Amino acid sequence: MIEALCIERRRSTDNSNSYESLRREGIEAIQALSGRLWTDYNPHDPGITILEQLCYALTDLIYRADFSVEDCLADNHGQIDYERMALFTPEQVFPSRATTLQDYRKIILDAVMDIDNVWISHSALGGGLYKIAVRLSEPLDQAQSDAVVEQVRLAYLRQRNLCEDVHEIVVMNEVDCHLSAEIEVQRGRSAAEILAEIYYQCEKYIGGCITFGSYEELLQQEVALDEIYRGPWTRHGHISDADLNGNHGELLISTLFEIINAIEGVDHIKSLHVNYDRDRYARTELDGMPQATLRLHLPAAEMEMGIRLRESGMTMPVLVDSLHDRYQELEHKNKVARARIYSGNELVKLPQGVFRNVADYYSVQNHFPDAYGINRYGVPESASDDVKARVIQLKGYLLLFEQLMANSMANFGAVKELFSLHRSDHSYAFQILDDAIIKDVDRLYPENPVTMMSAILARYDNPDERKGRLFDYLLALYGETLSLEALRHFNYYYSDAELKQNIVDCKIDYLRCIVKIGRDRAAGIDYLSTSWGDIENVAGLQQRASRQLGFKYHHTRLLVASLYKQKLRVVPHELYVALSKDENQYRLVDTRSVDNAVQPHYETVPLIERAPHLSLDELRNQLRDIEPLKGRLLSERLLQRGININHYRLLELSLNQGVEIFISVDDDGNGWYLGTYADRESAARVINTLRHFMLALNIESEGIHLLEHLLLRPVTKQYGEFLQLQQEGFYNFRVSVVFPAWTARCKDRHFRHLAEKTVRESCPAHIYPEIHWLEFDMLYEFERLYKKWVGLKRDQSINATACDEAAAALTRLLIKVRA
């Protein structure tokens, strides 16, 4: 008997998510629960029909869950909002900040179009100072040359690292070089084109000119992306490390032979000589920097032609004008190619998804036979009320399963919202089915089903905790962690709910800036641009440490500004007491409650949630009657203890004389009289306003100042104290990190220990941070000098003397606070 040939049906019984596996597992569960008391498990049983339909619906759910990540994150147009989900491109993630001398050369060559090469060496002064030498693309007058030097300086400062600076920028001296050669050429190409290319290619080699390569060529050579993006990103093309490492102090005739022989149309070289003034051109290099560069002389007249082209023994005449025209064409092509700007999107095509409306739910009831009466056709109008009631009962039974599946699909559809960088009041999604999906479903839902479903999910949903874990995962993608120990263990300012929200907000902020925080962790400021009050021009160490410590602001600003604008000056409590002559400003009572008829009963104060929209001025206006705030002095103890509602007390006076309010100034129960108010409600409201005012002052006053000692060196003359400080190493790889000492959190010695540890761990290993905790008056003086110096430093070329005087004053203050 001949066996029939056929394709065997693929069995999916081995797949635990297949329909057959789900059906088998369901029947096994039924058998375990019911034994022999229920059915023979054949399809004619309605229970088996229900099981099969639900298994089919589950396979659809499993199918949707298996969509690609790109599809899950895509919007209605198939686009993915990468920035919203902290998914950064290779162009953003792979390139590093300039770190080595070669890196600096690349970014300067990429930024300044008028130079062919640049060399960087350590200055003789040492201590992070550099000398930069540039070779101009073409001879320029003094004004144009100075403009190029300034472009080089600005390009360096934009990538400047901590405790580094440029000491000197010079334009290289050039020595004319002449080529003498006799070259045999082939037919097919004009002599002018061949000669122009010989001069052009030889000039590039002789002058040590750096050429930019195409990124497309690297991709065609299958170079890995991390290798292409290694080092700083150069927008105008790829710069080879081999070119930068070339020995430009030595001119090899053999290399010129190779260059000329590789030119199209050249047959062979009969003779080749290079003539230049060897006394003016030094062959040796000092610290990797040549003493001078050569420039190949382009003939201006026929008599200067040093290169003779021959074809079959006959001299090929070339007009000088034709030579110059072809040479300029080559230069123009090179300038056009160098001016091209590459985008990362040209190198790597970002993944795009296909929009799939995974949240769209189709009821399983529509797949049931018409006899059940639950699909879209329903039951006939002629059916009895008993039949209609049973249909509604079955619909209600199935709705329990369908609601779970519909909610699962809603959660699939909300994945892009779940991973987005925003805080939400819920992290689980659901959907309420309507009559278009399940007929007569309104009869099954209770009143206000949205409210009901939200309340059910809220019992299991902790959005801040869940979003926080998702953000931890995103942070881990970039090799980062953000424990925010400074907020968790030193929570002086927030309620438990506020703290959770604040931690999530801090992680969102960190993720939005994670590329800059990681790449620029060693970055210094561009001191020729605005840095005071600028949220972008900030030292990397300052940004990173500020965020890890949970400070509200991360840029350089006046930390005393919030108090100064309120015309308040923070002083030690003992000094405040000594200066308070009016006893109403400082009157103490014993607020410890004693349960007897003689001792007054001081009551605690209920907490009222803060109004986040109120400014400091508005809060201060509501506190006009608070005794300690009527003057210009603010006790440090009031600022620190005033943030805790448990430190306040109420005392209701007899005979309707009002309610007095107090704040404990120590742990011994001594209460400081603050004022008297008409009733308990008014007193409680004022106390909460005062607490919110003190909270805002504390939060607004926290931050970091970071000052590089190297930038304080004089730019005009060598002061005696400068020489002494230089010998002591004051300027060499040191930074001063300044914190306020008077806020509640910064007063805690354990927090100070954590802050100092955070700074040191974030600081580059070769830099020593000097950390200072300054009281209000000292910080006020520091910030006054610091802000003045920053403004003068930005314009140091205009008024260098004033800049040096400001730097000297700031240096003396830093030395003073060292003690």
User: Fraction of residues in helices?
Assistant: 40-55%
Apparent shape: flat
Number of strands: 19
Mean pLDDT: 88
Which structural class matches the secondary elements? alpha/beta
Helices, by number, come to 31
Query: Which radius of gyration do the C-alpha atoms yield?
Result: 39 Å
Write a brief structural summary.
The chain is of the alpha/beta class and 819 residues long. Helices cover 42% and strands 13% of the residues.
Overview of this structure, please?
This protein is of the alpha/beta class and 819 residues long. It contains 31 helices and 19 strands. α2 runs parallel beside α14, α7 (191-206) packs across α12 (320-339) and α30 runs antiparallel to α31. The longest helix is centred in the middle third of the chain and has 29 residues, at 385-413.
Question: Keywords for this structure?
Answer:
819 residues, alpha/beta, four-stranded antiparallel beta sheet, 31 helices, flat
Please describe the topology of this protein.
Blueprint: H1 19-34, H2 46-65, H3 69-73, H4 90-93, H5 101-111, E1 115-122, E2 129-136, H6 142-158, E3 165-171, E4 174-185, H7 191-206, H8 215-220, H9 225-228, H10 241-244, H11 253-261, E5 266-276, E6 285-286, E7 289-290, E8 293-296, E9 307-311, E10 314-315, H12 320-339, H13 344-347, H14 385-413, H15 415-418, H16 449-458, H17 463-477, H18 485-488, H19 496-512, H20 514-519, H21 540-548, H22 561-565, E11 569-571, H23 573-579, E12 588-590, H24 616-621, E13 633-635, H25 636-641, E14 648-652, E15 659-664, E16 670-677, H26 680-701, E17 705-708, H27 720-728, E18 734-740, H28 744-747, H29 749-762, E19 768-774, H30 776-794, H31 800-818
Helix pairs in contact: 1-2, 2-14, 5-6, 7-12, 17-19, 21-29, 30-31
